[in-house]
Write a structure and sequence with these properties.
Blueprint (H helix, E strand, L loop, with lengths): L1 H29 L13 E13 L4 E8 L3 H12 L6 E3 L9 E7 L4 E6 L4 E6 L3 E6 L2 H12 L1
Antiparallel strand pairs: 1-2, 1-4, 3-7, 4-5, 5-6, 6-7
């Protein structure tokens, strides 16, 4: 008889657990709601690209930055890779890890920004608009392009 009284309690606990998991999964998926991106070249107001520079003297290393110009074909290639990203290509992150070697900002007509930051090993993407989304990107072709730009 005691077991029959316990069954509704266990059912309630299991139901609460299922609701919790469903809510957690839904929140996690909503953080990627900006993907896939749909960046249209004509909607870009401006593009800024900066790479880190390092100069060594006898006793110290000076870190600075240098503006670089992206030609249209490079911008087009980067945008193509960004637009092709899916939820499987990215991981939500809270911040950029590592020392940024190259940064690119695309300012769009709708007052939003797409920021791409490249470290020695990783690429990070930040969408800034009504909401902000930050991702770690897994795309070898994009990483190769950014690596080359950071070294030129």
């Amino acid at each position: 008889m005691k077991i029959r009284k316990m069954v509704p309690i266990f059912a309630l606990i299991i139901l609460c657990f299922i609701i919790y998991i469903a809510t957690f999964t839904q929140q996690s998926d909503s953080k990627n709601k900006g993907l896939p991106l749909n960046i249209v070249q004509k909607d870009i107001i401006s593009t800024q690209a900066t790479k880190s520079t390092y100069t060594r003297t006898d006793k110290q290393v000076n870190i600075g930055s240098e503006q670089i110009n992206l030609d249209e074909s490079t911008k087009t290639e980067i945008i193509k890779h960004l637009n092709s990203l899916t939820n499987g290509d990215v991981t939500n992150v809270n911040n950029t890890e590592g020392s940024v070697k190259l940064g690119i900002v695309f300012k769009l007509q709708n007052q939003s920004e797409i920021r791409v930051q490249f470290t020695s090993n990783d690429t990070f993407l930040t969408e800034i608009g009504k909401d902000t989304y930050r991702y770690k990107v897994q795309n070898k072709e994009l990483n190769d392009i950014l690596d080359t730009l950071s070294k030129d």
